[in-house]
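Q: Protein A?
A:
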Amino acid sequence: MNIAIGCDEAGLALKATIKDHLSSSGHECVDYGCFENEVVDYPDVAYKVAKEVQAEKFERAILICGTGLGVAITANKVKGVRAAVCHDTYSAERARKSNNAQILTFGARVIGPELAKTIVDAWMESEFQGGNSTRKVEKIGTYEETEFDS
């Protein structure tokens, strides 16, 4: 599977670890930055990645910042995108199975690389279960405002 991935400078080292981990599992990562240890505004990277998911260029994406919160908030501003902050495997699994989250976010200052890999694995191995959750996920879409590009 092709996966979009992005981060700010706080997530740079963890992003490299996750890219290697996904590659070793046969996935290809398309990297949206940041690429060097320079100050980057996480909303810029998160928005780019979320727009790619919205355009259905990727089924899934991973965003990393210091806490995972800022990139999730930004990604969730894009209509049709569901991003979930997950710092444990159960949340990652439920983000997919119950909420059909296309974007996984986490914080490099919150979790270490080994836990991040297990979270990514749990999320990647999970699929949307539909059922009663379908109605709820569809309802989320009814609450979205019209998006205007500037």
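Q: Protein B?
A:
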Amino acid sequence: MLYPSLDPNERFRARRDAVRRRKRRRRAAVAGLFLLALLALAGGMTLAGKGTKTGSDVGTQLASGVAGTLQVATRPRPLPVEVRGVHVTGALASLPGKLAEYEALTKYGLNTIELDVKDEGGEISFVPAGVPLARKTGAARNYYDPYKVAREMHHKGIYLIGRVVVFQDPYLARTRPDFAIKRPDGSVWTTNAGLAWVNPYDRRVWDYAVSVAAAAARAGFDEIMLDYVRFPSDGDVGSALYPGRTSVPKGRLIASFAEYAKQRLSPLGVRVSTALFGLSATRDMGIGQVPAWISRSVDQIHPMAYPALYGGGELGIVSPSAEPGETVFRTLIDFKRQTRGSGVQLIPWIQDWNYRPEQVLQQVRAARLQGAKGYLLWNASGLYTKQALAPPS
């Protein structure tokens, strides 16, 4: 034998010690489960306490339904080494076989899809659990099953971003005019296109948008992109009145909203990002978008570096539309300067309409030269330049 046998007393002590070790392990396991339950309960109570501030018909009521399930914080799925993605509307996703067409772009290099959860018209692509106001507004649609979509995307190795438009919301403003930006005569303020906005100073509006986002997070989306996180810029903005307006500057208010969204959504295991105007890092646009402040509360910023949005002379370029690569390059210089030290990652939106493939590729190359974490292609019609999705060679 390799080892001598133990005497009876030694065998007894060994068995006794083994029993004690098993008991200690069981007690430690029970204590760990009890501690985890306490932490989960404390987190649920905290969220429930925040929700009670905003009215019984708004937001995630943790005491009811699916929204009442205690959530344990998880880590987000890893970001692709380089994000290469496209924008897909909810209406497009509802067409038979359409999402499969976008998923098939993986053979060209696509690894990310940004799918509308709540769009600029106020429509919500599915019925969000725990947000009864979404039904009351008439905004909820059945464009797709978010759980099914998330499973399919993950199975194909696709990173899924859910876009949530926040403060432009005609449905909510019409159904709840007390949430809306107003005109001096008390009517609901609208843009030149007749689109109503809701009031950034109203915390019930914050709760509504983030509760919709939370429903997408629970369904399995990897990231929530908050869009129209700003004050309106189109129309007679000088006549817009904000009930309950405080002395808090617009930029601080929008940054506070981003922080609020991050605090509510991060425990659900998603990243939180914002889409910002490309010029917001260059000059004060008067809409409350200050990248230096917002960057402290989000994981990614998606600068909307579409050259078509820049006027002549912006960024020191005579005609930004004629120099798409240079426009993206200089936009990212300003964003890197504004967000230095924050740790936020920059993933710009690339203009993929009214351009030849080479002009789209110029923007992609500019993003890479600036060290961006990737890029997303935007075309409202959903038609994309496949060459622009190729990995760097």
